[in-house]
Design a protein that fits this description.
The complex is a heterodimer of chains A (213) and B (66). Chain A is an all-alpha fold. Chain A starts with a helix and ends with a helix. The mean pLDDT of chain A is 90. The model of chain B has no long low-confidence stretch (mean pLDDT 82). With 66 residues, chain B is mainly alpha-helical. Classes of the chains: A mainly alpha (213), B mainly alpha (66).
C-alpha cells in the first residue's frame, strides 16, 4: 500500500496548479502529522485508563506509543519545513500550527525523559501519565490552530464529514498512504508493546514458564 | 526521464522528504523490533541463570548431605 501510494504520489498524480510539484511532499507530511496527533491522543487515553483503573497494560500501551509518536511528529515538522521553503520562502515560521506541533514533539520527548528518570515503574507510570493527560490539551490546539488563528499554514484540505477540496485522483493515494501509515504504526506498536511487557514482567514466574516452553 | 525526476525545481525537496520518511519509518521499525528482541533475550538469559543457580545449589546441598 505504501509503495503504491508513493508511486502514485511521485509519478502518477497530476501536478498541482498552485504548488506545482512541491505538493507531492504532502503525501508524506499529512499522514505523519495526522498520525502524530492520533498517537498522542491514544497515548493520553491509555495513560488515563492506566491511572483510573490501574491497568498496567494501559500504561504499557502509553509507553509504547511515545517513541513512534515522537518520530512521526519530528517527521511531520521536518517534511513541513522542507515544503515550507519553496512555498513560503522560509524553513520555519512561528506560526500557530507549527509551534503547537513543536510543543507536541516536546511533550513526547518530555514523556520519554520523565519515564526514564524513575527506577520504579509504577512511579514512572503515574508521573508520565499526568504529563500525557495534561498535554492532550495541545491536540485540539494543533488541529484547530488554522481555524482559530490567522495562520500561514494552509487550512484543512481533507474533511471527514464534508467534501474534500482535493480532486479524487489526488485524494485517493493520500488516503491510502494514511491507511498504510496507520497499519505500519500498528505493527510498530505491537513490537514496542511486547518489549514493554517483557521489561515490566521480567521477574514474573509466568514469563519464565512461557520462555522455557 | 530526468525531467520527471527533477520535478521542475522542486525535485530536491520532494525526494529528500520521501527519503527522510523512509529513514524515519525504518528507524521506528528497527528500534521497536530490536527492543523486543533484546528483552526476549534478556528474559531467556535470566531463566537460564536461574536454572543454573538452582541446579548448582541442589548439587552443593547433595554434597553437604553426603
Amino acid at each position: 500500500m505504501m509503495l503504491w501510494s508513493a508511486y502514485q504520489a511521485l509519478f502518477a498524480v497530476p501536478m498541482d496548479y498552485q504548488q506545482k510539484d512541491a505538493f507531492r511532499i504532502l503525501y508524506v507530511h499529512v499522514p505523519a502529522a495526522s498520525l502524530s496527533l492520533m498517537v498522542y491522543s491514544m497515548m493520553a487515553i491509555a495513560a488515563g485508563i492506566g491511572m483510573i483503573w490501574r491497568m498496567k497494560l494501559a500504561h504499557a500501551v502509553a509507553a509504547a506509543c511515545a517513541m513512534p509518536g515522537a518520530i512521526l511528529t519530528a517527521l511531520a515538522l521536518v517534511t513541513g519545513s522542507i515544503w515550507g521553503k519553496p512555498m513560503w520562502g522560509a524553513w520555519w515560521a512561528w506560526d500557530a500550527r507549527l509551534t503547537s506541533e513543536l510543543i507536541l514533539l516536546f511533550l513526547f520527548l518530555g514523556y520519554m525523559a520523565l519515564r526514564s528518570s524513575f527506577d520504579d515503574i509504577s512511579r514512572a507510570d503515574r508521573a508520565s501519565a499526568i504529563l500525557a493527560i495534561v498535554g492532550i490539551i495541545n491536540v485540539p490546539i494543533v488541529k484547530f490552530s488554522v481555524v482559530w488563528w490567522n495562520s500561514l499554514h494552509q487550512g484543512e484540505t481533507l474533511s471527514v464529514f464534508g467534501e474534500s477540496k482535493m480532486d479524487p485522483s489526488m485524494v485517493t493515494p493520500l488516503l491510502v498512504m494514511m491507511l498504510a501509515f496507520l497499519l505500519f504504526f500498528g505493527s510498530v506498536l505491537c513490537d514496542g508493546l511486547r518489549a514493554e511487557i517483557l521489561r515490566r514482567e521480567r521477574n514474573a514466574s509466568w514469563l519464565a514458564d512461557l520462555v522455557t516452553k | 526521464m530526468m525531467e520527471s525526476l527533477k520535478m521542475g525545481s522542486y525535485g530536491a525537496y520532494v525526494w529528500s522528504s520521501f527519503a527522510l520518511t523512509l529513514l524515519a519509518l525504518l528507524i521506528m521499525a528497527v528500534a521497536a523490533r530490536s527492543a523486543s528482541k533484546h528483552e526476549l533475550k534478556a528474559a531467556l538469559r535470566r531463566v537460564h541463570v536461574n536454572a543454573t543457580n538452582s541446579s548448582t545449589s541442589n548439587a552443593s546441598d547433595d554434597g553437604a548431605l553426603s
